[in-house]
Structure formats: structure tokens, C-alpha cells
Amino acid sequence: MNDYLRASFGKDGPTVHRMGLSGSYWPGKRAIYRAVDEGVNVFFAYGFDLQMTRTLRDVVRGRREDFVIATGPYNLIIGHTSIRKTLERRLRQFQTDYIDAFLFLGVMKEQQFSLAVRDELLQLKEEGLVRRVGMSCHDRAFAGRLAAEGSMDAFMVRYNAAHPGAEKDVFPHLAEHDPAVISYTATRWCCVVGFWAQIPRPWTGAG
């Protein structure tokens, strides 16, 4: 069971707990500390998730390498938030020199994740400000194609019992480049904790 609960966060990534915690539903400082005590070391937060950002500042101090922090700029209906400025704010909020997974969030269709956006993300990685770049996407087929290309390091996709489409559209394309995979709404819409996992390879179906 202990082996099952931990996995590599993508190719050459750190070892992480398969469960991660998102702060968007304001779980409370006590819940965040309890998650850390139970071995959870992957956390996702938007800039307005102040419980998470403030608590993690204390949690990671002196042991930054033990944790994976995921965040990112958000795709809007028209345009998107500034990628670099969002990163600069998150670095200040978390009081860290780098972000582990910087994701372009809320991609609904391919046109919203342009080559210009991807190049800007990759530039930040080249500068050492982020360690992995990727996107959160509702278009699973598009995410699968990018995973097959190996152009991004991390993907966040919906995956649960009600929405198993990633088994066909995403997971079969992971083996060659081994990106990190984060699944959200793991228990449909009533979750606070998401399921973060490197999908076992080779993919053999749901299980």
C-alpha cells in the first residue's frame, strides 16, 4: 500500500503522494497541516487561496524540496491573465524561488493554448523560475496530442467515475515522454482533495 500511495511526479520528478490538496474550498489551516502530517506533499492553489498560500509558507520553510506546489495563470473568455506577472505574484505569495508545476489553467479548446503562450511558459522554465510547465485542459483529445508530442511537462485533466474519458484520450499517450498527470474533480464535484498521480505504465485500463 505504501508503494501504491507514492509515485514519481513525471519524468525524473520528485516522489509525491498520489493524493494532493487544493485550497479553493478553504479547508482550513488545520486540514492543511493534517494533510502534511499524513504525507501529502502536492498542493494546488490560486492566488486567492490565501489559507493555502499563507499556511504553505510556514510548512515548506527549510524543506522546500520536499513539496510540490502547482499554480498558474488563468485563461479568460477573452484573453488571459499575464503569465509572467502571475508567476511573480505566486513566488511572492509562497515566498519561494521557484514553482514546481506552472500550469496555464482553464483551457477549453486548442486555440486558447497558442504557441505564444507555450513559448512564454517554456521561457520561464528556461530561466529556472519554474520546474515544469503545462496546462489544465477540458479538451482531453488536445491534451493527449500534446502529451504524445512531449512538448509539456505536466497536464491537469478531469478524471473520475463519471468522466473516464482520459482513459482513452490521454493515458495511452503518456508512456514515451512520461509527463506528470494531475486529475481534478476526482470525486466528481464534492471534493476538496484531488487525486494526483503518475498513471501506471503501460496503461491497462481503469483500476
Number of domains: 1
User: Describe the biggest sheet?
Assistant: 8 strands, mixed, barrel
Number of helices: 6
Helix content: 25-40%
SSE string: EEEHEHEHEHEHEHEE
The CATH architecture classification is Alpha-Beta Barrel
Rg, Cα atoms, Å: 16 Å
CATH topology: TIM Barrel
Class inferred from helices and paired strands: alpha/beta
Please report the first level of CATH classification, the CATH class: Alpha Beta
Alpha-carbon distance between the two ends: 14 Å
Q: Which helices and strands appear, and what pairs or packs with what?
A:
Elements: E1 6-8, E2 15-17, E3 19-22, H1 29-37, E4 42-44, H2 50-60, E5 68-71, H3 83-94, E6 99-107, H4 115-126, E7 130-137, H5 140-149, E8 154-158, H6 166-169, E9 180-184, E10 193-196
Parallel strand pairs: 3-4, 4-5, 5-6, 6-7, 7-8, 8-9
Antiparallel strand pairs: 1-2, 3-10, 9-10
Helix pairs in contact: 1-2
How would you describe the overall organization of this protein?
The structure is a single chain. The protein is α/β, with parallel strands linked by helices and 207 residues long. It has a single domain, classed as NADP-dependent oxidoreductase domain (TIM Barrel). Helices cover 28% and strands 23% of the residues. It is built from six helices and ten strands. An eight-stranded mixed barrel has the order 3-4-5-6-7-8-9-10. Strand 8, helix 6 and strand 9 form a beta-alpha-beta unit. Helix 1 crosses helix 2. The chain starts with 5 loop residues before the first strand and ends in an 11-residue tail after the last strand. The C terminus is likely disordered.
